[in-house]
Amino acid sequence: MATSQNTSEPRVEIVPLEIKDVVLFRPGRFQDDRGWFEETYNARRMAEAGLALDFVQDNQSLSRAVGTIRGLHFQAPPYAQAKLVRVVQGAIFDVAVDLRRASPTYGRWVGAELSAENGAQLLVPRGFAHGFVTREPDTAVCYKVDGFYDKASEGGIRFDDPDLAIDWGIDPAAAMLSEKDRELPAFGALGPIFA
Ligand SMILES: Cc1cn([C@H]2C[C@H](O)[C@@H](COP(=O)(O)OP(=O)(O)O[C@H]3O[C@H](C)C(=O)[C@H](O)[C@H]3O)O2)c(=O)[nH]c1=O
Predict the structure, then answer these.
(1) Cβ of 130: how many Cβ atoms within 10 Å?
(2) Which residue's CA lies nearest to atom 19 of ligand 1?
């Protein structure tokens, strides 16, 4: 009978990004001959890393086509949401846009490659718009939010806004979008939503 060997101890890896409040990290995987095990979320470890949030809802979406873009979305206060995003199947380029008027990085975006393979997670604080483009077919994205869904407070910005100039790595004309996302307003049309 084969027995598995535990070949490595995981450690949380935090990768600094250009917008310091958006955090990219990897919880760490216990690798052995069978594969791996990972604590994908641990409230105590998040608190120890200074990333404590009270998540109240888990979401999951499946996007079948490569080049599917979901976003850029946010919920306005008092229903703003921080998000902890990870990919359980496939891969995305995940993007956060700083909408906090008082922020030195207001109107700036930051992105990271998240995949089932790399196990990376992106923590997007309240005050940001969030969106992603899929890099593989049948990509499943799971994310925790710290505020309940509130349709009336939903807002968004069109993915190809020229002022944001997000490099999605695809031809914008080839993007798969929902009708809702095709109709999203320009960044310049946003009012003062987040202080
Ligand atoms: C977000 C959400 C949606 N819905 C319903 C509303 C629609 O009938 C249906 C699809 O919603 P939507 O087209 O907004 O789904 P996405 O385009 O994936 O939106 C999400 O994509 C980007 C990347 C985000 O960061 C947001 O969390 C979220 O806006 O699910 C719910 O019932 N609860 C929810 O929390």
Answers:
(1) 23
(2) 70
ipTM of the complex: 0.98
Respond yes or no: is residue 143 known to be catalytic.
yes
> Measured from the CB, is residue 106 less than 6 Å from ligand 1?
no
The tens digit of pLDDT for each residue in 129-187 reads 999 999 999 999 999 999 999 999 999 999 999 999 999 999 999 999 999 999 999 99
Name the closest-CA residue to atom 13, ligand 1. 178
Q: What is the whole-number distance in angstroms between the Cα of residue 141 and the centre of ligand 1?
A: 12
Coil/strand/helix, residue 20 = coil
What ranges do the domains of the chain cover?
17-22+55-186
Is the whole-model pTM more than 0.90?
yes
Which atom from ligand 1 is nearest to the alpha carbon of 59?
35
Classify domain 17-22+55-186 at the CATH topology level.
Jelly Rolls (2.60.120)
Contact of 72 with 130, CB cutoff 8 Å: yes
C-alpha span between 78 and 45 (Å, rounded): 27
